[in-house]
Model the fold of this input.
Amino acid sequence: MRSEPPVGDDLQRMLVSMKQNVLERAEPRKRRGRRTGVAIAVVALLAVGAAGGGVALGLIPTTPEAAPVSTPSPTEPARTITPSSAPVLITPTPTPTPTAPPYSATDWSTWTITADGAGPATLGSATGADDAALREGLTPAPPLVDDTGTVIYQWGCANPDARVWERSDGKVVEIVGDGVVQTVVISGPTDSSATQPEVGPKTLAGVGLGSTLDEIRAAYPNVVQTRKDPVGGTADTFWAVPDGGRFIVFQIPVDGSSVSRVYVGATDEPAYDYCS
Amino acid sequence: MTDDGPSLVRRLVSGDKAALVTAFDRFAPALTRYAWAVCATPADVEHVVQESFLSLWKHADGLNLPTGRLLPWLLAVCRSHAGPRGADVAGGEPLRLVQQDLLALPDTDRRLVELCLVEGRTWSEAAQSLGLRPGGTSSRRGSRATKEVQR
Done:
């Protein structure tokens, strides 16, 4: 851009937003308590506020004499980045969607993941219409507030369209648009690369969080790997099953061997960084 | 305040998110200014800055910091993320907005930045042309990280 960069409060707001997003997306290396992560995020946000005008004005502190040569192995900022492969196109095969069996709203292991959603989280329902049922088994993610108590993100998430519901062993996210639920995301207790526990709802074929790729392939021979990000994006793999014009997409962490998230929606390439 | 690259990287490798916060607070303003100079929209600026810090987090255990400073590496990564989004990364004009940051660097680091950001050299090419040791042992994970970033 040829305009001058933001300074002062404008820069601070931008930095706060970016930092929050980075911290939310920086997946833990080790299995850690969620409370610790939340606490760090809040402390980080407060720290940005405290950083104040000096940084906002862009006065990076000077650096003294050369530091000792470091010893890590080389990681290379590349000259250019190209996608690792062309996009995969899937032609949805219209098939009748089986009816999900009854479930208990309080026990998400009784929910069934279908092309319509999972349990009470239903695609196409009006924003907030599922809240009462979801509240029976989950709690809304705590809002993120600044040091004055002002709510920054109602759902603890920078994307105001992501309605995040939590429970001790995972969470459910409804991503809304045009006043209705457009995507449902089911995730386990951690996004780390460790083996994912088998918790929560499953599809009618019996796969869900914690399932392996072999199990997915066995259940859905038509599953196709979709999203392949360029360098800098996620290296996790995404496996889509077309279902009645929608898709059920399973995400497997790059260093893991089982499903960490399941997405249901209109795209076979869901935005894994739905909070941004 | 020093760049403190090696110390920050050690903490990042251990999974210390507070180190990521420190790195962000220290370097994000400079990266934001550089990204602002090359990107077409504020949304692109936010994207490339965020992705740069996520790259730092993700690849911390494979970093090659031949001078021990993080800022040159982050700027080079920022350029890498900006290019595919149609950013105008050519020439030296974008460095105008980070001039003060560069003046605070030792000559070698400044030259590293120029080679990568102005001449479009890769990080290893730039380090090699300056006769810098690539640095340390390569862990197994580090090797994989290198492949990921280079492809």
About this structure: Helices of chain A lie at 8-25, 34-56, 131-137, 213-219. Chain A touches chain B through 59 residues (CB under 8 Å). Chain A has four helices and 14 strands. The longest helix of chain A spans residues 34-56.
